[in-house]
Structure formats: C-alpha cells, structure tokens
Amino acid sequence: MRTVINIIVCCLWMSSVHAQDTLTVAQLEPFTYSFSVENGMLIGEGGDFLKQEIAKAQFTMIGEYHGSKRISEFTNAVIPILNQLGCKTMALEVGPITGELLNTLEGNVEQSLKQLHQEYLTKEEDGYVNTPFPFFDYKEDAQFLQTAKDASWNVFGIDQEFYDSYVMLIDKMYNNLNAERKKEHKDLYDKMREELQQFYLDDQSDKQNLHVSISKSERLKDFLKAMASEVKNLEIIEALKQSSAIYLLYNQRQWYENNATRIKYMKAQLRRGLSNSNFDLSKDRMLIKMGGYHLSKGFSPLSLYEVGNTLNEIAEYHGNTALNIGFMSRYAIEDGELKDYYTSENRYFKNFKDLLQMGKEDEWVMIDLRRLIKGYFYYPQRYKLNPKIAELVQRYDLLVIPKTEEEGTLIYD
Predict the structure, then answer these.
(1) Which residues of 55-180 form beta strands (DSSP E)?
(2) What is the pLDDT of residues 384-397, one digit of tens each?
C-alpha cells in the first residue's frame, strides 16, 4: 500500500512541476551566449563558444527557417571555421541535379544565379515570383555559396527537385544531346517545353495540379524516352520521376506517405552525394543546411526519423559527435515596422516565449539546450519546461536567435 501511495505522491509532484512550466532569465543566463556576425566572422563570447563546439563535431547541422537573410549570414561565417578544420563538403536542401548545377558555378556566383533566375523565374497573378533554385533568392544566399566555392568545397543536393526547376531541367537534358540528336528531337523538345509551361499556368489558375498533368502527359513520356539516349540524362530523368511522384502523393493528400517517401529519398541522395565525394564516414567533416525539421535528432515533428537523426547516429557509431543547431526569430522588420514575436498571440511563439525572452534586437543570442536535459528529464528536476520546449530540447543541441530579421536583397529583377 505504501508503494502505491508513494507512486501517487510522485505523480502528483510531477504534475505540479509541469503545470508551472516556465523558465526564468536567471536560469537561462548561465548557458546563454551573445555574439555578432561581422564581415563574415563570428565575434564575441558566443562566437568563441560556437567555434569550440564546431571543432568537436564531425557534422555541423544548420536547421534553418527558410528565407532568412540572417541564417545565410551565419552560414557564411561558419564555412571559414570549418574550412580551417579540413571540411570541404556541404549538403543542401535542393535536388541532386540542382545541386550539381550549383556546384559547377564558378567566378561570380551571384551573377550566375541571377542569370539563371531571370531565364527561368515565373510570376504568378498575385505577384509572387518562383525561381528555379529554392532558397537562393538573396545576395546573402549567393554569398555563402561563393565562400564555399572559393574554398573549393564540394556542394550537393539531397532533396527532391523543386516545383520551379522543371523547365530548366528539360533544357539541361536537351542541351546534353549531341548536334545530330538535337536536330532529330528539336520539334519534340519545343512542344514539350510549351506543354510544360502550360502545365504551370494550369496549376497557377487551379485548373489542374502540375504533377497531375505531368503524370498524364504522353508527350513527357516520349520526351524522356528520347532524352534517355544520352547517358548524362539518366540521372536527371530519375530525379524528375522521383520528385514528381513525391509531389503527387502530397496532391493526393497522402501526407504521411509524401513525407516518408521524401525523407527516404533524402537519405538515398545523401548516401549518393557522399559516395561521389569519396567522403570517409568515419572521420570527414560536413556542413549541412536544411529546414529545421529535417535536421532533428530523434523523431522529427513529422513523426519520422530524418537526416539529422541519421547523421547523429553515424557520428556516434564512429566515436564522433554531431552538432544540431536550430534557429528561432524574436524580432523582425515587417512592412517597415519592428515586430516582437515575444508578445505575439500566435500559438507557435507563445509556446516558446521562455526561450524568446533571451532574444535581442541588435545582437545574436545562442542557448545551449543540452544544459536543460539533465535538469528536466532526470531527478532532481531543476527546470520547468512546457511540452513544446521539452521536445525542442530533445531535437537540437543549440538554439540560435538572430538579431532583428529583415528582408534579404533579391538577386533577380
């Protein structure tokens, strides 16, 4: 009977602790560090701490929120640190063929990206612009890629080929043909290109989903069959087929299957990219920059084990460590006004107020989430976390809150 009573008392104590799920500034300050990013360098106490942590890790993971000028500035500052440690490899959230195109860019990367954007961008009726290279719309994005290429890094993509790259990839396949085959398939190519552009218009006007149109297109089947005569095109054909199948699952509202298939594809392309780089899994370093969900440790919010977990397991298997860095914004300029998400009624920001309270307008902040593990998940419990923060602490080692987020500088007209 006494054992049962002890269990009940313990459960009631744990319930009361979790009901008061707040973290104070005083609790977080001992493992919160400030730094700045200046001229491509990490400056300050937090910068020194980050350099030490990066030096320990075989895999450095930048789990971003997309479209961030600040995170690209951060990435640009991290690359030289890793370069000094012998790292020469970077994986990105783009398709494998798009990644190969990025890897071949030489000279002025920004200018090359701008030319490709101008050639292939599409503009929707509401003014929204789609570009063929996802997450490379800003000068800041081009800058970190320039820094990597100037240091002779190998860059590759591990995701599906994105929606707006298809016309560019059709052109790439056709241009891979020799002169004789180009002449032979010129009419088919012209009609295929015209049909694909119509598919985009139909999608934008909600007439028919792009990938439904692609799955029904007999001309596309004929075109891909003709392009397969060139060995260089086989990888592009496979990437297009796999990518469109992933998108089609989403259109069919098969949400789990869509995500599970995509993540399995990511892991296969990660293996392929590392193999092509002669990457030594037991010791070589890599930087990877993707959406935060994909670089989670353990179960991601999509209820799947993603790339971040795979890399953690690989590192530990070889006696190494990985560094999972998550990002969250407190301040941002929106429509010319400063917004403080700490005061937002949005459920997401309300869930993370305890962490957002450490953010600053003019300075970067980093919280070592690992320091919360022992004091929350193990007795004696010293920290009180709400369920969302508890999940975050399990997924990332460090949380970076950039200084005020603002719109990047577009590299297309």
Answers:
(1) 59-64, 89-92, 122-123, 129-130, 154-157
(2) 999 999 999 999 99
